[in-house]
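Forwarding these from the shared drive since the link keeps breaking.
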Amino acid sequence: MQLVVGRIGRPHGVRGEVTVEVLTDDPELRFAVGASVTTDPADRGPLVVEGRRWHKGILLMSFAEVFGRDAAEELRGTMLVIDSADVAPSEDPDEFHDHQLIGLAVETVSGEPVGEVTDVLHHGQDLLVVRRRGQDEALIPFVKPLVPEVDLEGGRLVVDPPEGLL
């Protein structure tokens, strides 16, 4: 499974630099000079990082394959991705990567099936998107009181929803 670690934005200057929206907690590792980065769509890459610098809080990058502003503009909207197998597990037992949660079966604390996690949204608070059988999707805040148990080995997570959430 691929994980998005960045999104290429607008060109910066005329030499082919681009702005990058950073979607990883370790940009220095993911975007190290000399690293080859896979892209989505795949036909735009892979791209080899030639340069990386921060400018007014924005990551600017240059790639060995990109020469000039026009070539940089063609990359706008390209996602920079890595294989989820390349992500080391967290040392914190209460921290999870999105790809670990997607696909888990969801059940209530009383064992009643709810559905399956199909996505994780990050909008100020992490939200689990749960597909329910024959019903609308449910958005469940990913906080300990509402999600008391995540069992990766068992392929499930347990929710304790307040009345009306589901």
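-- next protein --
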Amino acid sequence: MKIAARKQIGVIGAGVCGSESRAVAEAVGREVAKRGAVLLCGGLGRVMEAAAYGAKQEGGITLGILPGTLREEANLWIDIAVVSGMGHARNALIAQSSDALIAVSGEYGTLSEIALGLKMRKPVVVLEPGWKIEGVHRAKSPEEAVELVFSLIEGDEKS
């Protein structure tokens, strides 16, 4: 009997963020963990660390795909650290390994993850304020973003 794999929700965002983005990322992480999904991120600081911290507050599992070759570079809240040695190219692994992506703020690295996710036909949700990109869904709160990605994933499974 095949056991269903846990959903993996990618949380992507800036390597530099303020307190507002940090709070939003933590809330997204908590909501992902409440749904029993694995939180997947780039494993480093700022938005990635805040999202992982939020997931751990709810007893969630966190997976970080790191750009370098040292697991020790992962933030304290990462349970499973995957070293890629790929630098920014690891964004493709994050997009491919996620069932859906949620963007919290971000810069060009986040934009590349959004583009890769769309190219790979993954649901992508951007929290307001955020880029206006064709094919990207928008959410006004962390709760709305997580609810939306799960409804999009479940919709894909039914088709």
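Residues 17 and 140 are 18 Å apart (CA to CA). The chain has five helices and seven strands.

- D.
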